[in-house]
Amino acid sequence: MDKQNPSAPPCAQPRIPRGITHINVRHTTRFTVIGNHLAQHPELSGLAIGLAVHIQSLPTGARADIKTLAARFPEGETRIAAALRELEAHGYLARTRERLPSGRVVTHTVSYNRPRDSEAEAQAQDRRPTTPQSRPAPAPTLTPAPARTPAPATTTAPVQPDAEVPPSPTPDPHPKNPPPTAEHHTHHSAAHDTATALLASLHRDDPRLLLAERDVRRLAPAVTAWLDRGAAPEAVRRTLTASLPEDPLRHPAGLLAHRLAELLPPPFPAAPATRAARAAVRPLPLQNCDGCDRAFRAPAPGRCRDCRSDLLEAA
After folding, report:
1. Of 2, 239, 270, 312, which has the fewest beta carbons less than 10 angstroms from its beta carbon?
2. Residue 193: which residues within 8 A CB-CB, separation 6 or more?
3. Which is it for strands 93-99 and 286-288: parallel, antiparallel or unpaired?
4. Inter-axis angle of helices 252-262 and 233-241, nearest 10
5. Per-domain residue ranges for the chain?
6. Cα distance between residue 61 and residue 193, in whole Å
7. Helix 190-200 crosses helix 233-241 at what angle (to 10 degrees)?
């Protein structure tokens, strides 16, 4: 009994769990569904993810401007504004300025629980017509088929009653690349050509602004609107390329579209009349009448109207 048994099993060590342990309770009220694409976004900051979750949990009509969020959270307005710009750049937020009938300008915020690009792709996937292989086979009916009568000879092909008609695709309410409208079929003006060349050469100022051909066609009308209002091409270029974020641009076309819409200048006033135009409307010079020595306006020396009338009466 005084000898040790080396074959005896050692005492079991307590198992220490590694990593995180989840204790999940099912929510039945007051909850918001958040996708992992947002909660685990590899490029968004923690403040941007937190603001996106807070904004998605707000009811429709609640205020989500910078001052309201700064009053709600300990971060200042500068950090909150930077986080909102992150959400805009990645497609989770859209802000537009609208003018009320009273003349007051307000900011309208639209929150997306899925980025706009991936939302459009998902809608296109849902609207994609099913193939004959993926369509389930119709169940056989027990009703007897009606007797077929020979169809009269016509120029159109007869419709077979047993053939399946594929469903017509539903039009996309928010297409990523909208079909060209009547405005797109108008003749290309010189301003439109200048706008296309300007957009296609933005990558020379910043390589991240290399746009696809479809993005150039989509943004060209907005640049043309700037040029039609009197803005110089170099002014438009400086507006689009100034103060770009240092982070990688995932959606350069979206950033340019936002700047073109938000910073659109008002129509410029008419240019003042040139010296030649003012000279054209300058009054006639003063002349001394040869008959009564009275001053009158005429392009060349001669007689005034009264003296000419007297000469006519005397004749």
Report:
1. 2
2. none
3. unpaired
4. 120
5. 36-111, 188-240+251-261
6. 42
7. 30
